[in-house]
Design goal:
Family: Belongs to the Glu/Leu/Phe/Val dehydrogenases family.
Strand content: 15-25%
Order of helices and strands: EHEEEHEHHEHHEHEHEHEHEHEHHHHH
Number of domains: 2
Active site: 82 (proton donor/acceptor)
Number of helices: 16
CATH topology of the largest domain: Rossmann fold
Protein name: Glu/Leu/Phe/Val dehydrogenase
Organism: Nocardioides mesophilus
Distance between the termini: 35 Å
Structural class: alpha/beta
Binding site for NAD(+): 182-187
Shape: globular
């Protein structure tokens, strides 16, 4: 394991960036700790076939920063971190690799707590936990909360209800057309909430199997070939639920939806997209605000998991979203800016308490 010489951390405002390699198991990973101002950094482990190490580094830096803001806005006493394992999980994921990764996480002494993300599952966390004490998101059989996508989707739905109320005057998606891009772990649960609420749902996914499963469960759901076709459809709400960068200049130019609210992390392709959305009359629900349900779920596991307690906390995403929209209106800024201000305020105020001497 190698700590970065500081250049990456300094350039991005991170506390620590660690490169982890274990040649015998094939492990190549990066752990990024953005902030421990509110507590230990919690964030999932993404297992993905990045084209280059530089791509992996850029992703982990952006994701870990988002986790700091997500935990702060969710009212958790946790900081933000993230890890990426470079490689195709279908090809290189092994017990040895996961356990090697667990030893690297353990070596950080609790500054970073790991959980599931794209390409990793609760069963993987059980393997990592054989070498590491700082793991959450484990299987129910091992005392964990299980699949965190359940409450991630529930939280996104609550944020979407708040956006619907701000846009159309009622906290429901009944009668609205919602386009969901990505119906894997989180997207499929979100589709269920939307159908139950009376929405008309259109989906797309790079996986034909994922789309087929949705159509089997919900025959009334329509499917389109790709995301380009989805964003050009007549939509009331667009829900990006796959990988980041979903809101590009090209997407914003053709988007007909009045609301954007989805589970994907880092949806804004570059700085300034939030202003473009606002100028076009599109209400954007900041991703890290509405997709915090999964974080809330795995954080609750650290106390001894209670699904009802975690769900009640995730339901408050509705209130947080409403508060952010109100602040955005009063301050005359996009919701993404308002959400950042609230998160940064909490990080400042609570971290300041560390200066109060305790005997």
């Amino acid at each position: 394991m190698t700590d970065s010489p500081g250049v990456f951390a300094q350039a991005s405002g991170h506390e620590q960036v660690v490169f982890c390699r274990d040649e015998p198991s094939g492990l190549s990973a990066i752990i990024a700790i953005h902030s421990t101002a509110l507590g230990p950094a919690l964030g999932g482990t993404r297992f993905y076939p990045y084209a280059t190490e530089q791509d992996a580094l850029a992703d982990v830096l952006a994701l870990s920063r988002g986790m700091s803001y997500k935990a702060a806005l969710a009212g958790l006493d946790l900081g933000g971190g993230k890890a990426v394992i470079i490689g195709d999980p279908a090809q290189v994921k092994t017990e040895a690799l996961l356990r090697a990764y667990g030893r690297f996480v353990q070596s950080l002494g609790g500054r970073y707590l790991t959980a599931c993300d794209v390409g990793t599952y609760s069963e993987d966390m059980d393997q990592i936990a054989r070498e590491c004490s700082f793991v959450t998101g484990r299987t129910v059989a091992h005392g964990g909360a299980g699949d965190s996508s359940v409450l991630t989707a529930y939280g996104v739905f609550q944020g979407m209800r708040a956006a619907a109320e701000a846009t159309w005057g009622a906290p429901t998606l009944h009668g609205r057309t919602v386009g969901v891009a990505g119906v894997g772990k989180v997207g499929r649960h979100l589709v269920g909430h939307l159908v139950e609420d009376g929405a008309s749902v259109v989906v797309t996914d790079v996986s034909e199997e994922a789309v087929a499963r949705i159509r089997t469960t919900y025959p009334e759901v329509r499917a389109v070939p790709d995301t380009a076709a989805l964003v050009r459809s007549e939509l009331d709400v667009y829900a990006p639920c796959a990988l980041g960068g979903a809101l590009s200049d090209e997407v914003v130019d053709v988007l007909s939806a009045r609301v954007v609210c989805g589970a994907a992390n880092n949806q804004l392709a570059h700085e300034g997209i939030e202003k473009q959305l606002e100028d076009r009359g599109v209400l954007y629900a900041p991703d890290y605000m509405v997709n915090a349900g999964g974080l809330i779920q795995v954080a609750d596991e650290l106390e001894g998991f209670s699904f009802d307690r975690a769900k009640a906390r995730a339901e408050k995403i509705y209130d947080t979203t409403t508060k952010v929209f109100a602040l955005a209106t009063s301050d005359g800024v996009p919701p993404a800016v308002a959400a950042d201000r609230l998160a940064e305020q909490r990080m400042r105020e609570i971290s300041r308490l560390r200066g109060i001497h305790l005997r």
